[in-house]
Amino acid sequence: MSKLNETEFEARWAEASGLVYSVAYGLLGHRHSAEDAMQEAATIAWRKRGTFEPGSNFGAWVAQITRHVALNSRRSRRRRYAESFSEATDVHAAAEATPDAPSPEAAMSGEQLAFDDAVVAALGRLEPTARACLLLKTVHGHSYAEIGGMLGVPEGTAMSHVHRARKRMRETLTERKANEGAMT
Amino acid sequence: MTQKKDPSQQGLPGEPMDGEELDVAEARLQDAIDDALKRRFGASEVPRVSLPTQAGGGARGSGGSERRGVLARIGVARAIAAAAILVLSGWVGFEYVVEPWMSAPPTLAVQAQALLERLVDDGFEPGWTCETIGEFESAFADRLGQPVTVDAFAWDGVELVGLSYVRIDRQYSVAVLAEVDGQPVVVVGLKPGARMGRGEGVFTKQIGALLLIEVSTFDEPRVLPELKAPEPVSLGAGGGSCAG
After folding, report:
1. What CA–CA distance (Å, rounded) separates A129 from A134?
2. A139 in contact with B at a CB cutoff of 8 Å?
3. A143 touches chain B (CB under 8 A)
4. Alpha-carbon torsion B238, B132, B174, B210, what sign?
5. Can you tell me whether residue B212 is helix, strand or coil?
6. Is A141 helix (H, G, I), strand (E, B) or coil?
7. How far apart are CA B213 and CA B160, in angstroms?
8. Are B36 and A116 in contact (CB under 8 A)?
9. CA neighbours within 13 Å on the CB side: how many for B99?
10. Alpha carbon B33 to chain centroid, angstroms
11. CB B142 within 8 A of CB B91
12. Quick one: CA dihedral A23, A15, A169, B226, positive or negative?
């Protein structure tokens, strides 16, 4: 079995990094924690690249590694306090993008940014596996069987996680809107 | 915190997903949520990590071994410097941090911070929610012997998400889970007595015989100022027990 060389690994990682981020963010719930998990997953994947079978799905393989890293990270629960709340800083920093620094968000209205923030906040209130399932389905369009394989849950469970997560998100955002309306 | 959770609305495994029937408003909201998730978790938002292939050992071409040799020498120097720093910081750390810490139990401030961390780790899900202010008051009165009230479940950037049973300082207590400007905040009620200690983002307020501790990353309390003892006339009005 031939190992991936550096160029191949980098190319495949670039393709899979969005997926890896969704798994890490889903299971950990915070950008900085997810970034740490991605870093560790990349290191492990490189070290264990000899076990990757050429022709198989690199994204699924590295997603499983990321899942193990994220679960270990959750168990250790170190440094989480500081990290868990810096997410809002990231959100606000994004929202404060200046017109001189064009970004997809620069063209968005304040209302749209506020809605996106609310969506991320609602996402943070989901159970971790449900959050990961929702991201893998919505952002990456994976099948429930693929999601189940990556996260180590049955296909039907992945399906119900997505269903409930969507419903919960709608309820949370509807409730938020009602509360905002009541305040004004 | 205005609606109780309805288990009948939680969906069942195997229900149709993509084909689920939504009314027009729900479908629009779902589309907007999906779009927001794609924006926030799309390719442009993915953090870049330093791949091990780029971290010194991954040089390509004929210059690779030379570069690796230089990097190795730099690595040895760094390792020696790091070891020296480690020894020094280890001594300072033990003398001034570890030893005093080991000789004292964690303060309430530290325990409250750990509680917030644990609740966040668990998804920041409340154990139950209340529909009325009266229920909220009763939750504290029934469990901690001191009613606590609030004028509303949401105000300037603050939303009370719900309540949870928690264990802190060997007491079973009630915690208010709140979301403040998108960040989790917890207020826990305790019978005073243990050493409070100090901690960043930890604030206290006494209501009757109850000590309320708010913990967050903010530099000022955002929930505590709105919590208070109910007026005598309001006791019992609209009371009842919370769901959950």
Report:
1. 9
2. yes
3. no
4. negative
5. strand
6. coil
7. 15
8. yes
9. 7
10. 23
11. no
12. positive
What single-letter amino acid sits at A163? Answer: H
Nearest by Cα to B169 from B139, B192, B143, B146: B192
**Is A147 in contact with A64 (CB distance < 8 Å)?**
no
B209 Cα to chain A: minimum distance (Å): 29
**Chain A contacts of B36, Cβ < 8 Å?**
115-116, 119-120
CB B128 within 8 A of CB B134: no
Q: Can you tell me the distance from the alpha carbon of B159 to that of B174, in angstroms, rounded to the nearest whole number?
A: 17
Which amino acid belongs to residue A111?
E
B117 to chain A: nearest residue by CA? A81
The contacts of residue B45 (CB under 8 Å, 6+ apart) are: A21, B39
Query: Are A59 and A99 in contact, with CB atoms under 8 Å apart?
Result: no
Instruction: Find, among B121, B122, B153, the residue nearest to B136 by Cα.
Output: B153
pLDDT of res. B97:
60
Q: Which residues is B176 bridged to in the sheet?
A: B163, B187
3-state secondary structure of B213: strand
Contact assessment for residue B176 and residue B163, using Cβ atoms and an 8 Å cutoff: yes
Q: At what angle do helices A31-47 and A58-76 cross, to 10 degrees?
A: 120
E-strand stretches of B111-196? 154-155, 158-168, 171-180, 183-190
Model pLDDT for residues B184-238, shown as the tens digit of each residue:
899 999 876 667 777 778 899 999 888 999 998 888 999 999 999 988 764 444 4
The number of beta carbons lying within 10 Å of the beta carbon of residue B128 is 17
Identity of the residue in A13, A125, A139 whose CB atom sits nearest the CB atom of B42: A139
Q: Which residues of A touch B51 (CB under 8 A)?
A: 9-10, 13, 42, 46
Chain A residues within an 8 Å CB radius of B161: 125
Q: Do B17 and A77 touch (CB under 8 A)?
A: no
Q: Shortest Cα distance from A154 to chain B (angstroms)?
A: 11
d(CA B79, CA B59): 21
Give the rounded percent of residues in chain B with a pLDDT score beyond 90.
16
pTM to 2 decimal places = 0.48
**pLDDT tens digits, A88-127:** 334 333 333 333 334 444 456 677 788 888 898 889 888 8
| Residue among B18, B69, B177, B173 nearest B111 (CA) | B173
Place of tokens 């939504």: B22
The H helix count followed by the E strand count for chain B is 5, 6
Burial class of residue B194 (count of CB atoms within 10 Å of its CB; 0-12, 13-18, 19+): middle
